[in-house]
Amino acid sequence: HFVQVVEQTVSLTGKAFSTLHPLQGRVDLHFEVAQQRNVDALDKGLYRVYAEVYGQSKSGNGEIAVAWVSKITQVQKVRGKKVLSTDLDLSWLAKAGAEAPLAIKNAYIQEVNTMIPLSFEPAVQMYTPPAVREYIAKTVRSQLASGYKGEVTKAMLEGVAPERACALNNRNRNSNSTAQVGGAANGGKLIVLHGYCAAANPFAAHAEDWTDALFFSNPNAAISMDEYARKVMAFAESNGLASFGLVGHS
User: Hey, which bits of the chain come out as E strands?
Assistant: First the structure.
């Protein structure tokens, strides 16, 4: 059997803290990490951080599950601490009937090329500052008072779009041009992917069977999932797409 081994470049310290998010209705969760070394340009220093979030039951039944959070991100400094950060939509607390303080369990870090776990903590000490705790309580009260009934929104599931996607989407919306790709306008595109290490995109041979499709091609390339995803994103951006659908096989 082939067993892949990766270097542990970062590890969780078992501590985390929360801050206010720039957008209303969310808070940032920062997981403190220790860096074993500075990563090179190959993996761009990207990691996937994952954790389960718990809150306190409003009915007095103790700790209850709220949601899980995950994000691909880089090590950065927040309030003088090296952290990997993600964020939480506070509608999850309203849906669960929970309130602060928050608790974090089963947190881990994966490196993005192989998704091998680098660090795991069954319980993380989460500090929620008074201002953040007050903001959480105020936001949840406001959501419930406005008639929130526990609906799960796209923002709750997927987070908010990156700034570059928002900027590109706004640029397209404000443009009077109808850039043509394959005879169709720039919106509603479908990017069709080929399999790993394929010599060509087999779908492109039948391009006439597709409507509003773009055929991604990166032939004979043995690359990581992260690098593949980066190439697909670059392909989408080069075609002016802020959003798109994906079809593929492997």
Answer: 10-20, 26-35, 46-57, 63-74, 76-78, 81-89, 98-111, 117-127, 190-192, 213-215, 245-247
- For 15-50, the pLDDT digits (tens) are 999 999 988 899 999 999 998 766 554 445 889 999
Q: Which ranges constitute the DSSP H helices of 33-162?
A: 91-96, 130-145, 154-158
- Beta bridge partners of residue 26, listed in sequence order: 89
- Separation CA 49–CA 119 (nearest Å): 10
pLDDT at 66: 97
Helical spans, DSSP H, in the chain: 91-96, 130-145, 154-158, 163-174, 225-238
Residue 38: C-alpha distances to residues 34, 87, 96, 246 (Å)? 11, 24, 39, 34
Please, which pLDDT band fits residue 162 given cuts at 50, 70 and 90? low
Instruction: Single out the residue of 93, 33, 45, 97 nearest to residue 69, CA to CA.
Output: 93
Neighbours of 136 (CB within 10 A): 23
Residues in the chain: 250
For the beta sheet containing 76-78, the strands, ordered from the edge strand earlier in sequence to the opposite edge, are 63-74, 46-57, 98-111, 117-127, 10-20, 26-35, 81-89, 76-78
Phi/psi region, residue 14 (left: phi>0; alpha: psi -120 to 50; beta: rest), is: left
8 Å CB contact between 32 and 76: no
